[in-house]
Amino acid sequence: xxxxxxxxxxxxxxxxxxxxxxxxxxxxxxxxxxxxxxxxxxxxxxxxxxxxxxxxxxxxxxxxxxxxxxxxxxxxxxxxxxxxxxxxxxxxxxxxxxxxxxxxxxxxxxxxxxxxxxxxxxxxxxxxxxxxxxxxxxxxxxxxxxxxxxxxxxxxxxxxxxxxxxxxxxxxxxxxxxxxxxxxxxxxxxxxxxxxxxxxxxxxxxxxxxxxxxxxxxxxxxxxxxxxxxxxxxxxxxxxxxxxxxxx
Length: 248
Known about the structure:
The chain is mainly alpha-helical. It has one domain (3-243). Helices cover 79% and strands 0% of the residues. The chain has 11 helices and no strands. The chain has helices at residues 3-33, 36-57, 60-67, 74-85, 89-101, 103-110, 121-142, 148-170, 176-201, 214-240, 242-245. α7 (121-142) runs parallel beside α9. The longest helix is centred in the N-terminal third of the chain and has 31 residues, at 3-33. The chain is globular, with a radius of gyration of 19 Å. The chain starts with a helix and ends with a helix.
């Protein structure tokens, strides 16, 4: 059995296992251990971060998969990875600046119908950044033909963490507010674990030099932003509109 087939089988197994954990969390634990307003809040925060993530990621995770194997020497690969790794910062830093500058206005906009959102608006940005760089380092590992560990983190990590945190809420070990903060921290911890794993597989020599086809790389990333944003909108726009539905 080839490496691709072996990893495909393992990835499929972990995807189904993730469905099991996600189903238990959604159908039983969330509805019993959290009040409706906090369940709706968590759903809104995660869905909104999913809408923001493609913009921050700039399609870099797909760009790595598309172009990495086309470079024949380590020097070319290092130039490519060095030039694109920090591109998301060009979006993330301005969003952080203006988000902080207009935090009150943004918080008021999201919390017109549901005031509870205002205190947690910043979570949207942090989770979006963590998910963006997780996907980038996951792609980094995939081009080294090592996708299983990243798939475990993607499909199981957050669902298992949510289950543990929900039981912690039920047992009064943490508050519902702390549940959201710990969940945000879990996204960052997952990103860091994925980053260390990716660097362990392939550590580039960072350089300020750009690859010769850098314009083509940027063009492709731009297309992916549009495609990724469209996909995220289709999947999460209804949950993003939860506050406007006034259902809590």
